[in-house]
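Fresh eyes needed here. I'd like your take on this protein's tokenised backbone:
***
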Amino acid sequence: MSHVAESFEDKLALGAEGEQEVASGLLNRGVSVMPLYQFKNHDKAPVLLSGSGQIILPDLMCWNNGKSFFVESKLKRQWVEWNGNIETGVCQKLYPHYLKTKELTGVDVYLFFVHRGDYPGIYYQEISKLAGKERLWNGLSPSGKCCEKPLVLFDKKLLIDDWNKAEDTTPKK
């Protein structure tokens, strides 16, 4: 992975682009969507206040056919290739918050990855189906140089990739 210096605003715009693409797709599939951070400039993450502290919430709260679920979306420019596997992931800092969201609320949390470049498309999976199958990466190159923030990575084979193939591909359990 190569590190590209970007401003906070650039990263925010990139993230918003991925979130909008996922939200539009969900809306087109009859899902009701509520963006959880409706703050000026989207500069603060939504939080759940609980007895165990503040938990950072995923991007969207969704409803479909009487069922609710959270969605966290990430726009990615490339996949990670490691030991013959193709992987994508989320920030190590946020991943435990998403797991805790599911634990505290009992509501499913879906991770969506909007990929550009090789293997383009939208891939997703419910977080409990990924837990225990992740790989932690410290963000360092083999030479020890910092090239990315630490990530929790998931094998592409674990993700559902039917988003662009079927009319009704709302998240399935």
Observations:
- The longest strand covers residues 67-76.
- The mean pLDDT is 86.
- Residues 8-158 form a domain with the Trna Endonuclease; Chain: A, domain 1 fold (CATH 3.40.1350.10).
- The chain has two helices and eleven strands.
